[in-house]
Design a protein that fits this description.
Blueprint lengths: L13 H10 L5 H12 L12 H8 L3 H14 L2 E3 L17 E3 L3 H18 L95
Antiparallel strand pairs: 1-2
């Protein structure tokens, strides 16, 4: 029995990746990365994507249980759907992943790209994509707000110290110096001794010696 052509497909379709990263109606980073992981393995029409759950967990930076839970939620929202499971029939049954189809709206492709996608589907014996079988999807659900939003941080998580009130600063939490820039200490602190005024000793004004008399001259 010949192997499924998807096993040998080495050309990555760009359309599903662009849609998953930019236009998919999801509200979380995890869901978007899961769609990107599916889109990387999908055909140009978004069909036949079956990466393993471990691969999706590695791409979305989450655990395998989260992958299972979020894929089920995306199916419920209509963003993805179960595809043709025979596309992965060459993988052993105990390791075979589920096959998903990304529900990319037909209108998203535009006329030229949609014509190329439908030609590829015709080559595989599939009906074309239309607005009936690929209708526009509802908008993304609202994002769940963070549980700590609006609450003050505790535990000193930032580098800003709380203000400390000082009576001398009038309740301000700064390091304001006293009004005078001298060495006067606050009440109760050490007293800086002030030196006494310097008193110079009184000395007599020296008197010049009397001039010699004319008789002493030689």
């Amino acid at each position: 029995m010949p192997l499924a052509p998807h096993r040998w497909r080495c050309v990555v379709a760009l359309e599903p990746i662009l849609w998953a990263l930019h236009e998919s109606p999801v509200a979380s980073t995890t869901d978007r990365m899961l769609l990107a992981g599916l889109a990387e393995k999908a055909d140009s029409d978004g069909c036949n994507a079956f990466p393993s759950r471990r691969t999706l967990a590695r791409i979305a930076l989450c655990d395998v249980k989260t992958v299972q839970r979020r894929l089920a939620a995306l199916v419920e929202q209509g963003v993805i759907a179960l595809g043709d499971q025979d596309a992965a029939r060459y993988i052993p049954r105990q390791a075979r992943p589920k096959v998903y189809d990304l529900q990319i709206p037909a209108a998203w492709y535009g006329p030229e790209r949609l014509a190329r996608v439908n030609q590829d589907r015709a080559n595989r014996g599939l009906p074309p994509l239309t607005n009936d079988n690929r209708a526009p999807l509802p908008p993304a659900p609202p994002r769940v707000p963070r549980s700590d939003r609006g609450k003050p941080r505790t535990g000193g998580g930032d580098c800003q110290s709380p203000p400390v009130e000082h009576p001398e600063s009038g309740g301000r939490g700064d390091c304001q110096s006293p009004a005078r820039g001298d060495s006067v200490s606050r009440q109760g602190g050490l007293t800086v001794p002030q030196p006494s005024p310097l008193t110079l000793p009184v000395t007599e004004t020296p008197v010049a010696p009397a001039a010699r008399s004319a008789d002493d001259a030689r």
